[in-house]
Design brief:
This protein is 45% helix and 21% strand. It is α+β, with helices and mostly antiparallel strands and 132 residues long. Helix 3 crosses helix 4 and helix 4 crosses helix 5.
Length: 132
């Protein structure tokens, strides 16, 4: 007999993920450039192994802390704007649906991919409902 617990488990995980709250990173600044695009700027500490290469002459001299920028598209800018009050993921999806008049599924894919990408850079974090 097939194991039927996996689909239910996936649905529960998905529902739990959609209830998670999204937080902006503390070291991120945002601005709107001259073209009206939202640009996020954050600082990144150069890993120690790269600093060692610099000392050995294999890497150009530069600061340990560097500044990076990311330009957001329209959907990303909307999600970033809505992240000010630690919204739930599902609220961000609904906001994108309403603003851009796209299907829930399209909005879900766009929002979750944005959160994943910004999370990997440390610009956003996701806090599950049962975490502080």
């Amino acid at each position: 007999q097939a194991d039927t617990t996996q689909p239910n488990g996936k649905r529960k995980d998905r529902a739990r993920s959609l209830q998670a709250r999204v937080r902006r990173g503390s070291n991120v600044r945002s601005r709107v450039d001259e073209r009206g695009r939202t640009v996020l700027t954050h600082t990144v500490t150069r890993p120690r192994r790269l600093r060692v290469l610099r000392v050995l002459g294999g890497l150009e001299a530069g600061p340990k802390v560097i500044e990076k920028s990311v330009e957001l598209d329209l959907i990303g800018a909307r999600v970033w704007q809505d992240c000010g009050g630690e919204p739930r993921v599902c609220d961000l999806i609904e906001s994108v649906c309403a603003r851009f008049q796209i299907s829930y599924r399209e909005a879900e894919l766009s929002v979750t991919e944005f959160i994943r990408g910004m999370g990997s850079r440390g610009l956003l974090s996701v806090v599950m409902a049962d975490q502080p």
